[in-house]
From TrEMBL:
Protein species of origin: Actinoalloteichus caeruleus DSM 43889
Keywords: DNA damage, DNA repair, DNA-binding, Glycosidase, Hydrolase, Lyase, Metal-binding, Multifunctional enzyme, Zinc, Zinc-finger
Superkingdom of the source species: Bacteria
Family, per entry: Belongs to the FPG family.
Residue ranges occupied by any FPG-type domain in the UniProt entry: 238-272
Catalyzed chemical reaction(s): 2'-deoxyribonucleotide-(2'-deoxyribose 5'-phosphate)-2'-deoxyribonucleotide-DNA = a 3'-end 2'-deoxyribonucleotide-(2,3-dehydro-2,3-deoxyribose 5'-phosphate)-DNA + a 5'-end 5'-phospho-2'-deoxyribonucleoside-DNA + H(+); Hydrolysis of DNA containing ring-opened 7-methylguanine residues, releasing 2,6-diamino-4-hydroxy-5-(N-methyl)formamidopyrimidine
Full protein name: Formamidopyrimidine-DNA glycosylase
Alphabetized InterPro entries for the sequence: DNA_glyclase_Znf_dom_DNA_BS, FPG_cat, FPG_N, H2TH_FPG, Ribosomal_uS13-like_H2TH, Znf_DNA_glyclase/AP_lyase, Znf_FPG/IleRS
Residue ranges constituting the Formamidopyrimidine-DNA glycosylase catalytic domain according to the UniProt record: 2-93
Pfam families named among the record's database cross-references: Fapy_DNA_glyco, H2TH, zf-FPG_IleRS
Keyword Membrane: no
SMART domains: Fapy_DNA_glyco, H2TH
Cofactor dependence: Zn(2+)
């Protein structure tokens, strides 16, 4: 799933390549991706791309008074092309959901919003104000803007696991499953630790780790070609997606806790005092 660093990198790419260009045509290959009815997608045509913003994990392409807001969900992506094909795409064929021509079709550039797999979560809104998008209206503070004092206030009294707090967008915007694993590993904290019970030193480590992991990822990805961002994200991970491999800090084996639709990775030596966490999926199989 694209998270704060990847969405920021995509926004940076569009600021360099899309701003100042005019929307010439919009092709909707998957109508279900559109979550708004008015204004229609055709209202974007003839408008100049005036800016690109990021709200948590939402991408906001501003077009002279309207915003095309996209949430890439788990398997969505934005693909930039210097020359888009002129022929309209066939509806419902392949991963393409929406195509925006920023030049004459068949001659100029633009971008595709695509989604792999059968579980569709990619969503697009055409709005006059990004706050009309329910997910943006309820976002917590951006993870890159949160200082230690604000994080201390946010965690105070919370009974959820710290992993849950980091990934709940209404509390903290921009962090998903992958970067929360990386942040907790660098902070030497168990993902199952209760957020409101962290000591002052643990909160300070968490705050510092959050800034360092996200800022490092933004620096690595900003300026990269959009097509290379997924590989750059995987290459920068120390624990996430590395189950069974040695921890780069201590050499212990990276372990996993699996859920029905996701998993988390951690290092027992670095994060849980050497104790493996209970994997409920495995526990059920052993009954």
């Amino acid at each position: 799933m694209p998270e704060l660093p990847e969405v920021e990198a995509i926004a940076h790419h569009l600021r360099q390549h899309a701003v100042g260009r005019t929307v010439r045509r919009v092709d909707v290959a998957s109508p279900t991706v559109l979550k708004t009815v008015e204004p229609t997608w055709s209202a974007l045509v003839g408008r100049e791309v005036s800016g690109v913003d990021r709200h948590g994990k939402f991408l906001d392409v501003r077009c002279s008074g309207l915003s095309l807001v996209a949430h890439l969900a788990r398997a969505g992506w934005l693909r930039w092309q210097d020359v888009l094909p002129a022929a309209p795409p066939r509806p419902g064929r392949g991963p393409l959901a929406l195509r925006a021509h920023l030049g004459n079709p068949g001659e100029g550039p633009g971008f595709d919003l695509t989604e792999a797999g059968t579980r569709k979560g990619l969503a697009v809104w055409i709005v006059t104000d990004p706050l009309e998008v329910p997910g943006i209206a309820t976002l917590g503070p951006d993870a890159l803007d949160l200082g230690e004092e604000e994080l201390t206030e946010l965690l105070a009294g919370r009974t959820e696991r710290v992993k849950t707090v980091l990934t709940r967008q209404s509390l903290l915007a921009g962090i998903g499953n992958a970067y929360s694993d990386e942040i907790l590993h660098r902070a030497r904290l168990s993902p199952f630790a209760v957020a409101g019970r962290l000591s002052g030193d643990e909160v300070a480590r968490l705050s510092r780790s959050m800034r360092e992991v996200l800022a490092d990822a933004v620096r690595r990805t900003e300026g990269q070609e959009v097509a290379r961002l997924k590989g750059e994200k995987r290459a920068g991970m120390r624990v996430h997606g590395r189950t069974g491999l040695p921890c780069p800090v201590c050499g212990d084996q990276i372990r996993e806790v699996s859920y029905s639709d996701r998993s988390l990775q951690y290092c027992p030596t670095c994060q849980t005092g050497g104790r493996p966490l209970a994997d409920r999926r495995l526990s059920r199989l052993l009954r």
